[in-house]
Design goal:
139 residues, two-stranded antiparallel ribbon, 5 helices
């Protein structure tokens, strides 16, 4: 199985400073959620303009794209915050970050297997109804 890295978040060429409303538009997150991410430590330090407005960078957009993937997999916010803390702590946390992601991946794989089993049951039931309809149409 070949795994490819996800492409960086799409953004206007040559730009590296974004307002909170631009980031909200591009990510689908609300401004409230972006401020909350910052408040709980999930979002790394966001630069501010001279007037105090948040100024997000391309790196911030890449981080938000990764956080979005973690959210899609059902990672608890506390684990995402812990991961963010480890990233900020530096390279000496590589092993702990890897362990956290591996444990989460194991849980995702388990949920995928459960969903595949559930899908098989649904397919079976759908086929029963299809067979019953075909039989009633022949009668």
């Amino acid at each position: 199985m070949t795994v490819t890295a996800t492409a960086p978040h799409p953004r206007p060429g040559g730009q590296d400073h974004y307002t909170i409303s631009e980031v909200a538009t591009w990510t689908g997150l609300t401004a409230y959620t972006l401020r909350w991410y910052e408040r709980i430590g999930l979002m790394p330090h966001v630069d501010r303009s001279h007037t105090g407005q948040r100024r997000y960078s391309n790196r911030d957009l890449d981080w938000l794209a990764f956080v979005g993937k973690l959210r899609l997999t059902g990672m608890p916010v506390a684990d995402m915050v812990r991961y963010a803390e480890l990233v900020r702590a530096g390279e000496h946390t590589f092993a702990e970050r890897q362990d956290l992601l591996k444990a989460h991946r194991d849980g995702v794989r388990q949920r995928i297997a459960e969903l595949q089993d559930t899908l098989a049951v649904l397919d079976f039931k759908i086929e029963i109804y299809a067979d019953a309809r075909r039989a009633s149409e022949r009668a």
